Structure formats: structure tokens, C-alpha cells
Amino acid sequence: MQVTIKSQTMLKLKPRKTIDDYLKLPENVRAELIGGELFMTPSPRFSHQDVAAKLLLHLTGFVEAQGLGKVAIAPLDVHLPSQDIVQPDVMFIRKSNAAIIQDWVRGAPDLVIEVLSPDSNERDRIVKRELYARNGVPEYWIADPATGTVEVLVSRNGSYESHGYFEAGDNLDSPALPGLALPVNAIFQKR
């Protein structure tokens, strides 16, 4: 009996997906294109959406009162300079960066926020953190409904450094939004 061993170079490689492949998906499919791979996710759980909605509400009120720019919420495609397409849960775009707001967002927002879900935890903490840093997103927040915390990361020399880890009783501040004092309790408040 003859045994054939295939080398890794002989294995068929999974073809990389392109923007064209992504754009062929139905509109009602939640997907992101990261590193040539399509990531499809089910709709978020209620706790995720509750946190995202509260962040949207508080940030929109602050941004509009100060005349700083625009706040948007997923699902909305962000076409990053790296040719990756993501849908951050919440994002802020300064007035001075408003040219990236087109049919979708085409460029790096000034702030992106991901609300963790059990199925997105690793992708948000590792993959997207690196992706956003590489694409020049100045500030990245990771909101965790399970712990009631928000980590604020600021870009320095192409990677993120922690600006602060905010929990119950803290007022979150943001270099991207000077003057913001967002009570963490208001984000994770349960009624």
C-alpha cells in the first residue's frame, strides 16, 4: 500500500475575498471583510444593543451640542484604507474629516467603539484593535457589557496605548472628544 503525503504547498489555499465579493452579499447580511476573509455574525443580543444605543445617545448629544461632527451606528460600512470593510458599533467623525462620509464611510473615523459580544470578543480585542491602529483610527473604545467597563485606547506610533480603563462610578473622558465626562453607569444602566 502506497501512502501519499501532501505538502502544505500542495494544499488548496482558500481564496481571498475581495470588495467585489463583499458587495455581492445581500444587504440584510451582517458581514465584515478583514484580511481577505468574510466574517458573518448573527444579530447582536439585547444587552449589546442596549449599550450601543446608550453610547449613541450620549455621544450624539455631546457632539451635536459642541458642533464637533457626526456620530453613526452600525450597520454602516466603513471602507478602511487597507481595503478592509468593517461595521463598528458606534463611530465619531470630526467636521474636519467629514469628506470620508459618502455613500458609506470611506476612510478612518476619528473614534470607533466596539461593544463586546461572546462571538466577537477575540475579534474586537485583537484583530480589530490591530486593524484600526494600522489604518490610523486615532481612538478605539472597547465596551464590555459583561463587566460594565470601557477601555479607551489611543493611537501612538501605529499601535494603541491605554488612555484609561473606566468602570462603574467613573466618568469616561476621551482625547477625541475634549470636555466629555460620560458616566460609565449611564452606559451600562439596567432598568
Terminal CA distance reads: 69 Å
Q: Output the structural class.
A: alpha+beta
- Which H/E pattern describes the elements? HEEHEEEEEEHEEEEEH
The general outline is globular
Helix amount: 10-25%
Mean pLDDT, nearest integer? 90
Overview of the molecule:
- This protein is an alpha+beta fold.
- The protein contains four helices and 13 strands.
- The protein has a six-stranded mixed sheet.
- Helix 3 links the parallel strand 8 and strand 9.
- The longest helix has 21 residues.
- The N and C termini lie far apart (69 Å).
Secondary structure topology:
Elements: H1 19-23, E1 31-34, E2 37-40, H2 46-66, E3 69-73, E4 78-79, E5 85-86, E6 90-94, E7 105-106, E8 111-115, H3 121-134, E9 139-144, E10 149-156, E11 159-166, E12 171-172, E13 182-183, H4 184-188
Parallel strand pairs: 4-7, 8-9
Antiparallel strand pairs: 1-2, 3-6, 4-5, 6-8, 9-10, 10-11, 12-13
Feature tags:
alpha+beta; three-stranded mixed β-sheet
Q: Could you give a quick summary of the protein structure above?
A:
The chain has four helices and 13 strands. With 191 residues, the protein is of the alpha+beta class.
